[in-house]
């Protein structure tokens, strides 16, 4: 009997020890998990384009060999296990009511395994790249998508938009000076037709959604156009006012591909043990200036260091100091907008007003390269980023225009992207 009691007590003791050990382990794992969650990522320079062209739009054809290249930097200089997935959206960027299995071929997510540490830079960072579609992650349907980048804890680092096209219609686009006399010197007009002989459209007014963009921006996109005429298999969009855009002005630019010499628009370059600082020349409003031809990238930017073998990991991060001479603007806050700001208004790109010197200024941390930008006023009365009030607007301005055509088939629960075209406005003298 004593022997049985001894073995029973020993067994219970071992169970208790094991349980205690498991509890300690679990507690430790939870602490590590919480510690990871507190990791603050510092994501910069998010780029998305076709693999072969750094300045291309993020759109690929469905079931083609085309690939998109997503790249970004994490300034924390600590490699992390990061994952990527895709989410499907409708034409107005409202999330689709589809399950991931309906629009994803492969796994629902993929690990981002391609990363490099920066080399010989003052600002350390980790550079990540991902090619899509991959063997593990492919789209099954056309339409609007977002990349979602997240970490081990499920925390989202950022999202990035792209499109998948199944080309089923022809788009004939004509860009010209505005028809209305009041708009002829300041606006562009986009007349276009959709030929849909290869697809049966029962009700074009409800089944077709057309999105028209200028320089692929979202803030001033035209989203409410309906066909003005219908002839056989052709939808005609030939308006006089509803399909117009302010021409605005050619983009301002600066070049920091090299920090060894002063390029155009660079006033000064300083350096200390921690960072580079680049001062741009103080700029002025252009609202009442005559049009002047100036080459630009229609708001885009690209990364490049002239002294580097690999600009992705050898380019420096630089404090670029912007200054705009102006009296206080009562209509709203002033922002720097362009591809560098993802065409968004946020505090990182909001200028501060110096009432003593009448100057708007901002220091922005940017990676070496070539940049385009505009100054814009966030008109609070219209909830609109007004470029023209600072930059001016001219019919001669050369812009890129894009047309996206979405189709909602009666049997589908999502909007297909069935047509796309883009064109540059020519010099309309």
Structure description:
The protein is mostly beta strands. It has 3 domains: 43-165, Sandwich (Immunoglobulin-like), CATH 2.60.40; 170-247 and 398-424, Immunoglobulin-like (Sandwich); 252-391, no CATH class. It is built from 5 helices and 30 strands. It has helices spanning 2-37, 100-103, 204-207, 311-314, 388-391; strands spanning 43-50, 59-61, 68-74, 82-89, 104-106, 110-111, 114-117, 126-132, 137-139, 143-151, 156-165, 170-177, 187-195, 208-214, 229-231, 234-237, 244-246, 252-255, 266-271, 276-280, 283-284, 301-303, 317-325, 334-337, 352-354, 359-367, 369-379, 384-386, 400-407, 416-424. The longest helix is centred in the N-terminal third of the chain and has 36 residues, at 2-37. Residues 1-39 have low confidence and may be disordered.
List key phrases describing it.
Immunoglobulin-like, mainly beta, 41% strand
Helix content percent band: 10-25%
Round the mean pLDDT to the nearest integer and report it: 90
| Tertiary shape | globular
- How much of the sequence lies in strands comes to 35-45%
> How far apart are the first and last residues' alpha carbons, in Å?
109 Å
Radius of gyration (CA) equals 27 Å
- Count of all domains: 3
Unreliable runs, pLDDT <50, ≥5 residues?
1-39
Oligomeric assembly: single chain
Largest sheet: 6 strands, mixed
Count of individual beta strands:
30
Structural class, by secondary structure, is mainly beta
Total number of helices: 5
């Amino acid at each position: 009997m004593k022997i049985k009691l001894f073995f029973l007590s020993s067994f219970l003791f071992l169970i208790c020890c094991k349980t205690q050990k498991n509890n300690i382990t679990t507690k430790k794992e939870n602490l590590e998990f919480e510690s990871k969650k507190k990791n603050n990522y510092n994501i910069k320079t998010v780029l998305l384009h076709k693999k072969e062209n750094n300045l291309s739009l993020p759109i690929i054809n469905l079931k083609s060999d085309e690939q998109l290249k997503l790249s970004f930097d994490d300034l924390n200089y600590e490699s992390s296990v990061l994952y990527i997935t895709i989410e499907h959206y409708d034409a107005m960027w409202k999330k689709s009511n589809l399950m991931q299995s309906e629009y994803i071929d492969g796994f629902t997510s993929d690990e981002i395994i391609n990363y490099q540490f920066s080399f010989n830079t003052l600002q350390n960072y980790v550079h990540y790249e991902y090619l899509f579609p991959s063997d593990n992650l492919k789209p099954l349907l056309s339409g609007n998508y977002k990349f979602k980048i997240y970490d081990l804890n499920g925390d989202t680092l950022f999202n990035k938009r792209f499109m998948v096209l199944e080309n089923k219609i022809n788009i004939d686009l004509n860009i010209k000076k505005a028809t209305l006399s009041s708009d002829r010197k300041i606006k562009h007009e986009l007349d276009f037709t959709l030929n849909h002989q290869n697809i049966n459209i029962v009700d074009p007014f409800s089944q077709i959604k057309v999105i028209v963009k200028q320089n692929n921006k979202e803030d001033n996109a035209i989203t409410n156009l309906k066909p003005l005429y219908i002839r056989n298999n052709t939808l005609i969009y030939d308006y006089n006012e509803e399909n117009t855009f302010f021409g605005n002005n050619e983009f301002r630019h600066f070049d920091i591909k090299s920090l060894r010499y002063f390029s155009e628009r660079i006033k000064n370059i300083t350096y200390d043990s921690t960072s580079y600082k680049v001062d741009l020349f103080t700029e002025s409003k252009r609202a009442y200036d005559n049009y002047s031809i100036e080459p630009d990238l229609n708001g885009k930017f690209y990364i490049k260091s002239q002294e580097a073998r690999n600009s992705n990991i050898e380019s420096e991060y630089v404090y670029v100091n912007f200054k705009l001479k102006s009296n206080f603007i009562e209509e709203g806050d002033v922002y720097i907008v362009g591809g560098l700001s993802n065409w968004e208004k946020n505090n990182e790109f909001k200028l501060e007003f110096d009432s003593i010197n009448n100057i708007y200024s901002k220091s922005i941390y940017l990676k070496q390269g070539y940049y385009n930008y505009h100054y814009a006023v966030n008109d609070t009365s219209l909830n609109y980023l007004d470029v023209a009030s600072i930059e001016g607007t001219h019919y001669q301005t050369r812009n890129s225009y894009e047309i996206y055509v979405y189709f909602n088939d009666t049997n589908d629960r999502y909007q297909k992207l069935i047509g796309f075209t883009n064109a540059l406005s020519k010099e309309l003298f």
